[in-house]
């Protein structure tokens, strides 16, 4: 699964601290904390017909992550919304748009890891692109990575930070194996998530299974799926899950803002179920689209 350049994005304007600049001229300082140490937080947003799905939930998570990292300054929800609105309007974007929202601690007076060196900040980047959901809905192939997710006492995954080296290393392994993405285990050997998405399985009894959020972020799309199950009488078991439980599942699918709901048909060379997308995945994907159409929020 390799994303391709979309010519529609050739001349997009990017917002950096409220200033709109062409993608070729967009830049941040080499003294910015994101460059110095990945000291930044981020969110992925998706635009549907001029509205954003779960915008407030994403902004709340951004703020929560910045608070956990002790950012001295955090923009208000209203100011971030204004920057998003201006960016979308400047690019004439209304649908099939993905936004990468990044908030860094800001610019340092000299290089170094000490946050006290950040005396100018924060830096807010709004990068909006024409981008439909990126995953192949005919079925994904996954392998299990040798790279483990951190436990909460190592680096709490509830902080949605920009230091993504773990995920990149896992993705390198997936690429080398010819797979779309990689499953990542926690420090105890239980399934956490993939390098980019949350995971669900459907067991032989038709019950939905998903790992606890102990070594993975609190997923917004994941929570929508759990809410849909509660509203539609679908049994869900949220607990520690081993790879074997995914190998023997009837269905597996992943969730995330970038790709919505996407079926997994192969894991570590094993066909999942009959090797084709399953009925539960299709049902939940349809319910998800209904929720998006009904609840996407005005910017």
In short:
By secondary structure, the protein is α+β, with helices and mostly antiparallel strands. It is 26% helix and 28% strand.
Structure description:
- This protein has 299 residues and is α+β, with helices and mostly antiparallel strands.
- The protein has two domains: 7-130, 2-Layer Sandwich (D-amino Acid Aminotransferase, Chain A, domain 1), CATH 3.30.470.10; 140-298, D-amino Acid Aminotransferase, Chain A, domain 2 (Alpha-Beta Barrel).
- The chain has seven helices and 18 strands.
- It has helices at 33-37, 55-68, 77-90, 165-176, 220-231, 243-247, 279-295, and strands at residues 13-16, 19-22, 40-48, 51-52, 97-104, 107-108, 118-120, 123-130, 140-144, 181-185, 191-194, 198-202, 208-210, 236-238, 251-256, 260-267, 270-271, 297-298.
- The strands form three sheets. Strands 9, 10, 11, 12, 13, 14, 15, 16 and 17 form a nine-stranded mixed beta sheet that branches. The protein has a seven-stranded antiparallel beta sheet with strand order 2-1-8-5-3-4-18, with helices on both faces.
- Strand 16 and strand 17 (270-271) form a beta hairpin.
- The protein is globular, with a radius of gyration of 19 Å.
- The two termini are 31 Å apart.
């Amino acid at each position: 699964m390799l994303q391709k350049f979309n010519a529609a994005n050739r001349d997009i304007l990017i917002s950096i601290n409220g200033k709109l600049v062409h993608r070729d001229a967009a830049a941040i300082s080499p003294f910015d904390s994101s460059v110095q140490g990945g000291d930044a937080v981020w969110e992925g947003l998706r635009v549907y017909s001029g509205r954003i799905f779960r915008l407030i939930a994403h902004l709340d998570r951004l703020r929560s992550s910045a608070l956990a990292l002790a950012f001295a300054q955090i923009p208000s929800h209203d100011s971030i919304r204004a920057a998003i609105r201006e960016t979308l309007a400047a690019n004439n974007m209304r649908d099939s748009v993905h936004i990468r929202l990044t908030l860094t601690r800001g610019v340092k007076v000299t290089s170094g890891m000490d946050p006290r060196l950040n005396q100018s900040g924060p830096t807010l980047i709004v990068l909006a692109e024409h981008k439909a959901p990126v995953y192949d809905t005919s079925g994904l192939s996954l392998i299990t990575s040798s790279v483990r997710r951190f436990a909460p006492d190592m680096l709490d995954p509830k902080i949605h930070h920009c230091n993504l080296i773990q995920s990149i290393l896992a993705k390198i392994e997936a690429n080398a194996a010819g797979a779309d993405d990689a499953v990542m285990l926690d420090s105890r050997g239980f399934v956490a998530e993939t390098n980019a998405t949350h995971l669900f399985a459907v067991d032989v009894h038709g019950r939905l299974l998903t790992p606890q959020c102990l070594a993975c972020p609190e997923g917004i799309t994941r929570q929508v799926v759990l809410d849909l199950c509660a509203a539609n009488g679908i049994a869900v078991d949220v607990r520690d899950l081993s790879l074997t439980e995914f190998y023997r599942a009837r269905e597996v699918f992943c969730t995330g803002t970038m790709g919505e709901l996407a079926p997994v048909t192969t894991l570590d060379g094993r066909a999942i179920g009959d090797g084709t997308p399953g009925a539960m995945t299709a049902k939940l994907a349809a319910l998800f689209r209904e929720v998006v159409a009904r609840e996407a929020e005005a910017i």
